[in-house]
């Protein structure tokens, strides 16, 4: 796996961090979650931008969003902020399959 793909995966993971921190900031009223949001957001965008130097924009963005969405939703279910249902888990597994498929055909 190339450095661009590694950075893309890490950036997608940071997307889940900033989304979760944004929720925890309660509308930017809490300092530390707000600070974590800013740092992880900037790092996530920088990694995405760097990865797009080698990976086509459509593929890079779809993989980045897919990773972030799956991790954010999974974390919300683990922490019981969202209900975990069989259908939600199946749909998240479908997203994972799509992300893997995009990598496979790239």
What characteristics describe this protein?
single chain; flat; mainly alpha
Count of folded domains: 1
How would you state the average pLDDT, rounded?
96
The run of helices and strands is: HHHH
Could you tell me the number of beta strands? 0
Helix percentage: over 70%
Q: What spatial form do the alpha-carbon principal axes imply?
A: flat
Topology summary:
Elements: H1 3-24, H2 31-51, H3 57-78, H4 86-105
Helix pairs in contact: 1-2, 1-3, 3-4
Your description of this structure?
The protein has helices at 3-24, 31-51, 57-78, 86-105. The chain has one domain (3-105). It is mainly alpha-helical. It has four helices and no strands. The chain is 80% helix and 0% strand.
């Amino acid at each position: 796996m190339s450095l661009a793909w590694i950075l893309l995966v890490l950036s997608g993971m940071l997307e889940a961090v900033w989304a979760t921190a944004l929720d925890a900031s309660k509308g930017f009223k809490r300092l530390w979650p707000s600070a974590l949001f800013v740092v992880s957001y900037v790092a996530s965008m920088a990694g995405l931008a760097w990865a797009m130097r080698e990976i086509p924009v459509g593929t890079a963005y779809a993989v980045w969003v897919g990773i972030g969405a799956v991790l954010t939703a999974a974390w919300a279910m683990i922490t019981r902020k969202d209900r975990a249902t069989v259908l939600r888990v199946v749909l998240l597994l479908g997203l994972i399959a799509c992300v893997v498929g995009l990598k496979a055909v790239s």
